[in-house]
């Protein structure tokens, strides 16, 4: 993208190409795509297809593949053209499948900056323009300089504001434009220590599990080798029958301990990879998250778009007195996205309770999520858990343990029932719903605790669900549907649930507050 | 429009319109009829085909096969009759009411749901008519909010013109354009 296009309203009508560096982006996209495809190809290759390809042709084949990639990257760059008008951005792309995307500024929900590792050396960005509509309706510009990216963002925000205030005076617009030049204000940073804590308390293992798969085999081989090397000594000291116990015992302990350590380490690694250099800043009415070790990421979320916040504390978080704070906005039209890429959720990882409180206050002023008195779920919720979850599990565990161990199995079964009941009770006790004039609060968890808080004005839909057993006791489960998803409070008394539903609906229908 | 007889425009808290006392209307009885016919037709048809397979004279089924086919017939008939019974009792319980400010749907036999969708929060609305619904002169009204597709309010079994009337009522509602940013 040429610098001279500095995003002003007087954009040219002509079509232009993105920066030459975007070839790099297309190249890597292609590579990523091929690697994904390769997963399917690998089994076929292993099953003998590679025998059909002569060894000496392999380098040629690889070279051909490489050339194809480069050519396709260049072609993609060549055919990617865009034009910016006063009302929006139009993009033509695709080599064979020509697609034409028209993005009016007011439909652009989110401007996201990414910095993949291949753009780090020249500090360029990939800009993604998200719309509220389908996931396909998004535009990506690669190889954009930081200044230009900021300018694009500015143009879009500006254009939207102008559109929104079209009816107002020109002087108003003037005020708006000068206002948005204020620089970012960092309101939270996360140190390496915080990220290590985050890694330990939040298992981000699955991110790295895939990558580590080839090493499992080597690991276990090593352990077995060591065991076998030690075997003669053990036999010498304890006799041969002890060896079996020794093997089983040591193996179990080692595997368990090893897995724990590896998982924690991987998890810490994942956390640092994703959240290195984390900053949460505020500019105008936007929250901006920047983080990432290899791929720098920037996600911004408009204050008014935040539907709900969630303070999440697992049992380990509670011991360490840390909180994961999530801000969530609407999910309509977006498919499931992995956490690191999700633009509809903004996570502040492992902050202290006090920091979480102050950030939450910043988003929803005068919220009392942690201090308000909650109405709990009816005790029948506990019995339902016992009946539907604990009882079948107990029957399973009982028949298994008693079948194998005989009388000792009874003890194990009893122990299981004890533990399961304690968990069920903790679950039941944790449920709670509360509200004040502005917000509705929900609490849930078992040994950990999650607090959810949202303004009553953000409600989209209310559903009251009951069944014939609950009906007899005049109990209902209350579903509160927000643009960010559904929150459910089970087993409330009918009076409480209907009163809250009626009040909230009446307020919304009377005052007609916006939700975006 | 008969819908505007119900008002929920009251402000004093003690007199708030309540979901517990909303008068509601039933959907068309043809909906149950249609479902019962469809259930009988589909499951009866599948069972009949399986029976034919079992008794046809042209080729002999090897030993475990007749048993498996009979099992399938039993299963199909079992599920079919449960579905039949379910529609028989549950469909008449689907009721709805259109208030000045929201749409309310009541449904459920064993699990009873009351769903309320404020018109202010409606993103878009459409009418869906499958081939069988068209035959029965019925339509399903679907109301989408920003809550996502999982929480679409769908009122099934409306007579086609009623569905159209409700759609127009919602589209003409003054609140509908308010939310668009």
TrEMBL record, chain A:
Keywords: Membrane, Transmembrane, Transmembrane helix. InterPro entries: UCP026631, YdbS-like_PH. The chain crosses the membrane at residues 57-79, 195-216, 245-278, 381-402, 408-428. It comes from the Bacteria. Residues 77-156, 428-503 form the YdbS-like PH domain. It holds the Pfam family bPH_2. This is Putative membrane protein. It comes from Marisediminitalea aggregata.
Automatic annotation (TrEMBL), chain B:
It comes from Marisediminitalea aggregata. The keyword Membrane applies. Residues 95-169 form the YdbS-like PH domain. Keywords: Membrane, Transmembrane, Transmembrane helix. It comes from the Bacteria. This is YdbS-like PH domain-containing protein. Signal peptide: none annotated. InterPro entries: YdbS-like_PH (IPR005182). The chain crosses the membrane at residues 34-55, 67-89.
């Amino acid at each position: 993208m040429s610098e001279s296009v500095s995003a002003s309203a007087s954009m040219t009508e002509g079509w232009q190409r993105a920066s030459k560096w975007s070839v790099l982006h297309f190249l890597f996209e292609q590579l990523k795509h091929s690697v994904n495809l390769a997963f399917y190809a690998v089994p076929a290759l292993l099953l003998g297809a590679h025998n059909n390809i002569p060894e000496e042709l392999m380098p040629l084949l690889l070279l051909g593949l490489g050339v194809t990639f480069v050519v396709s990257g260049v072609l993609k760059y060549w055919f990617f053209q865009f034009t910016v008008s006063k009302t929006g951005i139009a993009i033509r792309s695709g080599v064979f499948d020509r697609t034409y995307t028209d993005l009016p500024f007011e439909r652009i929900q989110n401007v996201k900056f990414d910095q993949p590792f291949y753009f780090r050396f020249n500090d360029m960005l990939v800009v993604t323009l998200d719309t509220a509509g389908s996931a396909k309706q998004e535009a990506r510009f690669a190889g954009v300089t930081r200044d230009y990216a900021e300018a694009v963002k500015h143009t879009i925000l500006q254009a939207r504001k102008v559109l929104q205030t079209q009816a107002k005076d020109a002087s108003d617009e003037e005020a708006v434009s000068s206002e948005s030049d204020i620089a970012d204000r960092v309101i939270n940073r996360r140190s390496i220590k915080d990220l290590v804590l985050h890694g330990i308390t939040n298992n981000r293992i699955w991110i790295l599990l895939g990558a580590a798969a080839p090493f499992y085999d080597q690991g276990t081989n090593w352990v077995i080798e060591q065991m076998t090397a030690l075997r003669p000594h053990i036999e010498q000291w304890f006799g041969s029958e002890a060896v079996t116990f020794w093997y089983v015992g040591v193996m179990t302990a080692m595997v368990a301990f090893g897995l724990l350590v590896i998982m924690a380490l991987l998890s810490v690694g994942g956390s640092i990879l994703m959240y290195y250099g984390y900053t949460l800043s505020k500019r105008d009415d936007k929250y901006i998250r920047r983080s990432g070790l290899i791929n720098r990421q920037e996600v911004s979320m408009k204050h008014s778009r935040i539907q709900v916040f969630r303070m999440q504390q697992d049992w380990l978080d509670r011991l360490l007195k840390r909180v994961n704070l999530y801000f969530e906005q609407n999910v309509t039209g977006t498919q499931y996205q992995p956490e690191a890429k999700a633009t509809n959720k903004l996570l502040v990882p492992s902050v202290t309770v006090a920091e979480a409180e102050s950030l939450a206050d910043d988003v929803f002023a005068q919220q009392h999520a942690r201090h308000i008195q909650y109405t709990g779920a009816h005790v029948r919720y506990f019995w339902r858990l016992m009946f539907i979850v604990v009882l079948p599990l107990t029957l399973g565990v009982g028949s298994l343990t008693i079948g194998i161990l005989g009388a000792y199995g009874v003890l194990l079964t009893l122990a299981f029932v004890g533990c399961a009941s304690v968990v069920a009770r903790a679950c039941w006790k944790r449920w709670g719903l509360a509200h004040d004039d502005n917000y509705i609060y929900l609490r849930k968890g078992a040994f950990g605790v999650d607090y959810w808080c949202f303004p009553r004005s953000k409600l989209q839909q209310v559903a009251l669900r009951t069944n014939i057993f609950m009906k007899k006791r005049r109990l209902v489960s209350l579903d509160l549907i927000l643009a960010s998803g559904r929150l459910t409070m089970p087993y409330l008394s009918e009076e409480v649930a209907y009163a809250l539903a009626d009040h909230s609906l009446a307020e919304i229908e009377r005052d007609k507050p916006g939700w975006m | 429009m008969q819908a505007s007889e119900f008002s929920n425009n009251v402000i004093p808290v003690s007199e708030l319109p309540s979901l517990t006392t909303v008068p509601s209307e039933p959907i068309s009885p043809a909906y149950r009829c249609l479902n019962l016919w469809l259930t009988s037709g589909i499951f009866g048809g599948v069972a009949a085909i399986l029976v034919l397979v079992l008794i046809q004279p042209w080729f002999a089924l090897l030993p475990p096969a007749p048993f498996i086919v009979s099992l399938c017939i039993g299963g199909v008939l079992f599920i079919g009759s449960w579905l039949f019974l379910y529609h028989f009792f549950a469909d008449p319980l689907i009721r709805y009411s259109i208030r000045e400010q929201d749409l309310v749907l009541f449904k459920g036999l064993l699990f009873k749901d009351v769903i309320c969708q404020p018109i202010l929060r409606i993103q878009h609305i459409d009418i869906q008519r499958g081939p069988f619904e068209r035959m029965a002169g019925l339509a399903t009204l679907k109301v989408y909010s920003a809550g996502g597709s999982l929480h679409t309010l769908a009122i099934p079994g409306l007579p086609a013109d009623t569905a159209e009337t409700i759609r127009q009522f919602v589209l003409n509602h003054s609140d509908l354009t308010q939310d668009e940013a």
